[in-house]
Design brief:
globular, 127 residues, 2,3-Dihydroxybiphenyl 1,2-Dioxygenase, domain 1, four-stranded mixed β-sheet, alpha/beta, single chain, 8 strands
Length: 127
């Protein structure tokens, strides 16, 4: 349904470093970056497919909730650890959220602007 999403951040460098660190365990990387214009822009995603963008500017005056797909539960745990190491704030440790469905395994962190960032895996635990 969604091709891409983007929003401005208050500290471009801090946010770019944060997202590069926390998205790596999910298999997403920095795919494009433009620092030459009036607005700095970074695009993250799968190789050749940036889909999540941040830009320098005035951040939204409300919290966003962005959920990134994880291939497995280990990636959710790695995302959470990377986010905390990169300065994120814990907003929900890795675990099952059975209110959504039996295999909804997620972790939540707050990014440098306070947005609720989630990694989620919908698959059962691998044996």
């Amino acid at each position: 349904m969604i091709d891409h999403i983007g929003f401005p951040v208050s500290d471009y460098e801090a946010s770019a470093e944060f997202y590069e660190a926390v998205l790596a365990p999910l298999g997403y990387g920095l795919e494009v970056e433009d620092l030459d214009g009036e607005v700095a822009v970074a695009g993250f995603g799968l190789p050749g497919e940036p889909a999540f963008f941040i830009a320098s500017g005035e951040p939204p005056n409300h919290r966003l909730h962005i959920a990134f797909k994880a291939d497995d539960r280990a990636a959710v745990r790695a995302f959470h650890m990377a986010a905390l190491a990169a300065g994120g704030t814990d907003n929900g440790a890795p675990g099952l959220r059975t209110d959504y469905h039996d295999n909804y395994y997620a972790a939540y962190v707050l990014d440098p602007d306070g947005h609720n960032i989630e990694a989620v895996c919908h698959l059962p635990e691998a044996n």
